[in-house]
Task: inverse folding
């Protein structure tokens, strides 16, 4: 149960924000509803998310794994649910997405993907536990530009997941929409 109300006075701004969310995602996102209590925070988050969608140097699967590992480590069920839906629709292998919580025991990942997930866990730890060896391993396969983008994705997901988890936001059922099988 959310720790903050997701209800709002029906202002033009609320209606416009909800319309945009429904148009893009099929429903109004709970994180948007939660931060809508502070319009400046909402606008800042929307601008940041819009800007991040233009980051394009990192392989989409590596991005997905970094985002999902960070979400899993923080314990944000909303982020895990939405992330599965988002990355499923971007063509990331569903087995890789499903196996994220137990990635160390899964055979679904390449050496580079494992290095990305290990780096993500170290970066998400409090305090961060990133080692020179982890970065050196990534630099064998990633350019500096890609490494910076990977780091930024992990940072952004830490921001999202910690915000959503602290506000008590939980799954909205996005993953189930991916699991439906045609009759």
Result:
């Amino acid at each position: 149960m959310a720790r903050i109300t997701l209800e709002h006075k029906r202002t033009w701004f609320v209606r416009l924000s909800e319309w945009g969310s429904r148009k893009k995602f099929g429903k109004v996102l709970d994180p948007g509803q939660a931060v809508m209590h502070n319009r400046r925070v909402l606008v800042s988050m929307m601008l940041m998310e819009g800007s991040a969608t233009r980051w394009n140097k990192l392989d989409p699967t590596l991005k997905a794994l970094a985002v999902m590992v960070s979400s899993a480590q923080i314990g944000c069920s909303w982020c895990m649910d939405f992330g599965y839906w988002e990355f499923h629709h971007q063509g990331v292998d569903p087995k890789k997405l499903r196996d994220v919580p137990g990635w160390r025991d899964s055979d679904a990942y390449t050496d580079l993907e494992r290095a990305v997930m290990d780096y993500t866990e170290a970066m998400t730890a409090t305090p961060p536990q990133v080692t020179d060896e982890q970065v050196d391993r990534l630099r064998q396969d990633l350019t500096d530009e890609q490494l910076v983008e990977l780091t930024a994705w992990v940072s952004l997901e830490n921001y999202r997941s910690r915000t959503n988890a602290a506000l008590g936001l939980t799954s909205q059922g996005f993953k189930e929409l991916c699991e439906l099988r045609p009759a």
Remarks:
- The first helix runs from residue 12 to 25.
- The chain has two domains: 12-54, 60-166.
- The chain has a mean pLDDT of 93.
- Residues 85 and 175 are 5 Å apart (CA to CA).
